[in-house]
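Quick start: read one record
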Amino acid sequence: MNTKIKIIAVALLLAGTSLKAQMPIRQNALKSNNYGVVYSLPLTQLDFELSISKTTYKRGEYYQYAKQYLSIDNPILEDKVVYNLESVSVENIGIPNKHNSYLIEFRQNSAEPFVYLTKDGLLCSINTDAPIIEKATTTKPQMENEATVNAQSLLTEEVLLAGSSAKQAELIAKQIFALRLSRSDILTGEAANMPPDGEAYKIVMNQINMQEKALVELFSGSVKTEYSTSKVSLIPGLENIDREVPFRFSEKLGHVHADDLAGEPVYLSLINKTP
């Protein structure tokens, strides 16, 4: 991360874009439970969902010849992994406060008394159907599954038998230029064996592009990015929060614990607006 400190100011807690329903559970007041139902008052919990990217840089085997044979000015010079904090979403949820649990007692002659509770024991409604509680969830970034080719399987016998890495690099560069020439001939209609139809054309061009990419990466190096999510929970008190550190983040390690000084702090400021 270029920015060492990120500030999250929470005034309105926003969630993601898709909704998942939570069904409340009906509890009847019966003689077996002395016509009473136990419920808990809610306690506020902040759930942070971190969207994290992991980019892996891999140096090409012939990186030192990238400029000489392919005019690549900035090949990857070393293997490394870099984590980046793409976004943070915060959701305000209610969890049962076990220190504030109560018993609802109904009269024995009440007409089929009941309540609706969440599965955690939070009260939803009394003697009436409960509304569906909507829980917001974030939409996770999707990583495309790109087809790849093993560059080693494309090397010719001449390359494998070459006596030096410099000679191997020269021969591989010639393979790359041959692939580019084949693609150009197909595009201009000058190839000796043109694809017979549109589907065959797409297959041939795709193969040429994948082979070229695999061989070029032997010089330029490769970059692969993966996405993941991580969760952090925090139960705030009644006082305002000023620059508290719920978690830390490291370019080398990704999400780390708030006490782990290997990561840079992510700060949270929260104002209690309860009257």
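Confidence is low (pLDDT under 50) at residues 1-21.
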